[in-house]
Structures are given as C-alpha cells and as structure tokens.
Design goal:
Elements (H helix, E strand, L loop, with lengths): L4 H4 L10 H4 L26 E6 L7 E7 L19 H5 L2 E13 L12 E7 L2 E4 L11 E13 L4 E8 L7 E9 H5 L2 H5 L7 E4 L11 E10 L47 E2 L7 E2 L3
Antiparallel strand pairs: 1-2, 3-6, 3-10, 4-5, 4-7, 7-8, 9-10, 11-12
C-alpha cells in the first residue's frame, strides 16, 4: 500500500548535523522522525470505518458518528474474518493502557489579548480525566515553549479521544480557548502502521482548531506513546524532556572597523562615528567617537 508512515514522516531529528551539534541533541530527540503535520495524514490504512448517524430516516442533519468494522462472508464456516487490523481478540477485549503525551512547543498562536499576545497554558482531557497547567501559564507570547509530559490511563477499546487544548489565562474574565487538537487513540493502538513505527513515535506538528473559525489558530508540536499495562513487560521509563536550566553567559561584541560609510557632514564630508550596542533590556553601550 505504498510507503509506510515511518518512511514518509521525514528526516530524523538528529540526522545531518555536524559533530559539534550532535552533543546538543537530547536523547529523546535522537533518531526520532518529525512529521510536518498530523501523523494521521501519513497513515494510509485506518483500522476502523466510520459512518455518519442521521437524526432520522431521510434526514440530512448529522447527530453523531459510528466507528467500527464491517465484514461480510457467505457463511461463518466458509472463511475466517479476514483483513482485520489486529487479532479479533484484541478488539473484543478492552485492556488498560498508559498514555504518555509529550508537548514541546506551540507556534503562531492566535493572539487572545489586546496586547497582540496570549498567556497560554495546556488543558488535557481523556475520558473523565482533565489535567491543566494553568499555574504554569506563559505570559505574553505568540510562540510558547511548554516541554510538558502528561501520563494518563485509558481502557482501549473505549476511552479513545485525547483532547489537547491551548488556553489563554485571564485574570478578570474566564479563560479563553485559543485552539485544540484531538488524537484518536484507537486509530493508533489498533493500526498496523502505528505499531510498525517502533518505539520512537514521530514528532507531530498538529494544527489548532477553533469552533469559531475555519482557520488554524496556531500549531502544536508533540508526540504520543501508548503502552498496554496487562502484559508481562512493563512500559519503558518516560522520557525526560525538560529543557536545560538557565545559565549565565557573557556576551562580548568587538567593533573593529567600518567601511564605505557615506559622509553626513556637509562641510567636512566626514563623519564622527561611534557604535551603539544594545541587548535585551540592558543599557546601551557606546564606543568612543
């Protein structure tokens, strides 16, 4: 059925870097593929079919959807149920899984405040469980560095929708939804292509949607791991994606010479030049004239 998802996901994150840069690649990123968009766009064969549910016979209004598998054979004894994504026993026996969500960063977030920025934080929902990072909101940004790891439990088949929301923190009014993305865990756990990706699941850049607009409200970089808990081998330890701590550096700027500077003094046709160096909120420094 063409290329596999792992072959199409893109270059490995650490591939093609110089020896000096390899030291800067964290362990969790080394060898991991990166998708330019959602992983769903690269998985050609979904494990389940979907049908729209109409309000009544002959109605056009859609009131929901049905997800499942439909196979037709002449007689049950003629042939086994073929072309299932995974063994039938797995589909008929709900099992407990651990779900690990790693959210790295957000880009191009739609501003939610009059300042042209937002104060984003994450809100994760799976089944009856909701986790919020409101107390760790990031102030006045359009690009956010989250580096957050979430660990949840899910019974699959069952609680399949993992919803990731980027919220805007407000002091006086209620918090606003910037955008959301949803991951169907059943479409991954019961997919052959997902399983063939191995232990290093790809990074994804997922667009953030809004119920009030058809345009993306930004994008979110993340990856999702899912491991069964009812097997002998325990899940591997989680990845530590915390960024390095802050470090103090000294910045030195050497202004050596200038060339081909147009004269600004009409009478002497010369200049009294000096350089101004400024960084961040530190006071500007001037050289001698």
């Amino acid at each position: 059925a063409g290329e596999k998802a792992g072959e199409k996901a893109g270059e490995k994150a650490g591939e093609g870097s110089d020896d000096e840069d390899e030291e800067l690649v964290p362990d969790w990123l080394s060898g991991r593929m990166e998708c330019p968009g959602e992983l769903e766009a690269l998985i050609e064969e979904r494990p389940f079919e979907r049908w729209e549910v109409l309000a009544s016979e002959g109605a056009s209004a859609v009131c929901g959807s049905l997800k499942g598998l439909l196979r037709v054979v002449r007689r049950e004894e003629d042939a086994p149920i073929a072309e299932l994504p995974v063994p039938l026993a797995e589909l008929l026996t709900p099992a407990l899984h651990v779900v690990r969500l790693y959210v790295l960063r957000a880009e191009h977030l739609m501003p939610a405040d009059a300042s042209g920025t937002s104060d984003p934080y994450l809100r994760i929902t799976l089944g009856d469980t909701t986790i919020s990072t409101r107390e760790r909101k990031i102030s006045r940004v359009t690009d956010a560095e989250f580096y957050e790891r979430f660990e949840l439990r899910a019974t699959l088949p069952g609680e399949a929708e993992l919803r990731i929301e980027v919220m805007d923190h407000d002091l006086l009014d209620s918090d606003d939804l910037i955008g959301y993305t949803k991951v169907d865990l059943e479409d991954r756990v019961f997919s052959r292509e997902w399983r063939e990706l191995g232990d290093l699941k790809p990074l994804e850049w997922r667009p953030l949607h809004s119920p009030y607009s058809n345009n993306p409200q930004g994008r979110l970089q993340l990856w999702v791991d899912v491991f069964p808990l009812d097997v002998e081998a325990p899940p591997p330890p989680p990845c530590d994606i915390a960024p390095p701590g802050e470090q103090r550096w000294e910045l030195r700027v050497i202004v050596w010479r200038t060339r081909d500077v147009l004269p600004h003094d009409y009478f002497t046709e010369m200049n009294d030049l000096y350089a101004v160096v400024a960084y961040g909120t530190a006071p500007a420094m001037h050289t001698d004239t």
